[in-house]
Write a structure and sequence with these properties.
By secondary structure, the protein is an alpha/beta fold. The chain folds into three domains: 2-194, Rossmann fold (3-Layer(aba) Sandwich), CATH 3.40.50.1380; 232-344, AICAR transformylase, duplication domain (Cytidine Deaminase, domain 2); 374-497, AICAR transformylase, duplication domain (Cytidine Deaminase, domain 2, 3-Layer(aba) Sandwich). 38% of the residues lie in helices and 19% in strands. A six-stranded mixed sheet has the order 10-15-14-13-11-12, sandwiched between helices. A six-stranded mixed sheet has the order 18-23-22-21-19-20, with helices on both faces. It has a five-stranded parallel sheet with strand order 4-3-2-5-6, sandwiched between helices. Helix 1 packs parallel to helix 9, helix 8 (127-137) runs antiparallel to helix 10 (167-196) and helix 12 runs parallel beside helix 13. It starts with a strand and ends in an 8-residue tail after the last strand.
């Protein structure tokens, strides 16, 4: 056990500190402090020794330099059982410091609030981060409290046994300290690197959510994400690893649609999707696309869920529903299933950058945020698509973008008829989509076909034409594009090229 006899306190946020300092004072601990923290402690009638009375230097450079002094850092870093350290401490009259409590300037808050560059720079803490690192390095002798998040743990220790700590407790606080300092430095680096794009991957999240399990029950799973990174949960059981993957897929898909749209997600792919004039109509058309796969799926919409829609949704089993809002009656209907996860997606937007672990490293890329517009479509054939067919082409192309490659999407009247997903050949993807559409009674006459990549041969457009499909959208880019285009011209099929491939591996 080590006894706390002297403490240095320098914090930005003071909430939760009053009870701690009263216990310290009651136990005869000398408290050193500066600036606003000193004034706060004095307002509580806590005896305080100013740091400048120890160092002989006032706070200078507009507060940039307050604690950066050998008498402060010598007091923190001296090894109590080290003979030479003890001699130097005595020689230079340096008081040992046994407890350091720091709460850093809120750099991230200022960045998030789009503060001026000058204000953000002044919120880069120098003295505080140095105190944290110094005290953590000397955890054998010093207790470091690196943020307000650790106040509660320290308070529990003080209440339990007074101003005495174990080595294990000090080592735990040291680990927390380096967690705080590394996160803080990562945030600062990423702020500066927005301009320079230095090739370095730094991502730090301080909030962790333990999941029931990972992809499978024998795998552990944890979600790390900042506050507000997930949709607000209004009801239901704990969200799982696989739920999260589908939730992300659902939000990314629905974010590409402006019309009233409902989609049903299963294993990261849309098994149903439709745009319509009302949410209820969109739901009914989406469900008709594949009522079998919809069982146990995830429903997402970009409009408020009303009572009538909720009543129809409630007729099938599904795990998750995501919407920007719910009317009161709809919410009560959906809550009748105890474990159903109900999420509010308002203000949740897809991340602009995506990354994943890979072979001991990290693979990083920009999110595929491109959404084709009618103006971007380049006619490749003599026959031109009609306005309503262009609408279906755009609709289908949004869906194929969010479907595992190789992918084919068949649509008509802004309704997903069927898709071929994750196949090793484009022909297989098309045949899968055709078979699926027919199994649910859809006629493909007049439907459109979207492909996530080019056609290397004319076989896909030929198969599609034989089923009554008369309009095709694809990115182009094959050295044999002309074969597909020629077949379309000879068989009265309209084809447009986007110039943008949407692989989703």
């Amino acid at each position: 056990m080590k006894e706390i006899k002297r403490a240095l306190i320098s914090v930005y946020y003071k909430d939760g500190l009053d009870e701690i300092v009263k216990i310290l004072a009651d136990n005869g601990v000398e408290i050193l402090s500066t600036g606003g923290t000193q004034s706060f402690l004095e307002s509580l009638n806590i005896p305080v020794t100013s740091v400048e009375s120890v160092t002989g230097y006032p706070s200078i450079l507009g507060g940039r330099v307050k604690t950066l002094h050998p008498k402060v850092f010598g007091g923190i870093l001296n090894r109590r059982e080290h003979e030479q350290d003890a001699k130097e401490i005595a020689q230079y009259e340096i008081p040992s410091i046994d407890l350091v409590i720091v709460d850093l300037y809120p750099f991230e808050e200022y960045v998030a609030a789009n503060a001026s560059h000058e204000d953000i720079i002044e919120k880069i803490d120098i003295g505080g981060i140095s105190l944290i690192r110094g005290a953590a390095k000397n955890y054998n002798d010093v207790v470091i409290i690196p943020s307000k998040d650790s106040y509660g743990t320290l308070l529990s220790i003080l209440k339990e046994r007074g101003c005495r700590t174990t080595l294990e407790e000090r080592e735990y606080f040291a680990a927390q300290a380096f967690n705080v300092s590394s996160h803080y430095d990562s945030a600062i680096f990423n702020y500066f690197n927005r301009k320079f794009e230095i090739p370095s991957f730094k991502k730090s999240e301080q909030k962790a959510q333990t999941l029931r399990y990972g992809e499978n029950p024998h795998q552990k799973g944890t979600y790390y994400g900042a506050e507000g990174s997930l949709p607000k949960q209004l009801h239901g059981k704990e969200i799982s690893h696989n739920n999260l993957l589908d939730i992300e897929a659902a939000i990314e898909l629905i974010s590409d649609f402006d019309d009233t749209t409902v989609a049903i997600i299963k294993h990261n792919n849309a098994c149903g999707c439709a745009s319509a004039t009302t949410t209820l109509e969109a739901w009914e058309k989406a469900l008709a696309g594949d009522p079998v796969s919809a069982f146990g799926g995830i429903i997402v919409t970009n409009r408020e869920v009303d009572k009538a829609t909720a009543e129809e949704m409630n007729k099938i089993f599904f795990e998750v529903v995501i919407a920007p809002s719910y009317d009161a009656e709809a919410l009560e209907i959906l809550k009748t299933k105890k474990n159903r996860i109900i999420l509010e997606s308002n203000n949740i937007t897809p991340t602009p950058v995506k990354f994943r672990s890979l072979l001991g490293g990290v693979l990083v890329q920009e999110r595929d945020s491109h959404v084709e517009t009618p103006e971007e479509l380049k006619p490749a054939t003599d026959k031109q698509p009609r306005p309503e067919e262009i609408e279906d082409l755009i609709f289908a192309n949004k869906l194929v973008k969010h479907t595992k490659s190789n992918a084919i999407v068949l649509a008509k009247g802004k309704q997903l008829l069927a898709s071929g997903t994750g196949q090793t050949s484009r022909v297989d993807a098309l045949r899968q989509a055709i078979a699926k559409a027919k199994s649910f009674g859809f006629s493909l006459e007049g439907a459109v076909m979207s492909s996530d990549a080019f056609f290397p041969f004319a076989d896909c457009v030929e198969i599609a034409a034989n089923e009554g499909i008369r309009t095709v959208i694809q990115p182009g880019g094959s050295i044999r594009d002309n074969e597909s285009i020629e077949y379309c011209n000879n068989n009265g099929i309209a084809m447009v090229i986007t110039g943008v491939r949407h692989f989703k591996h």
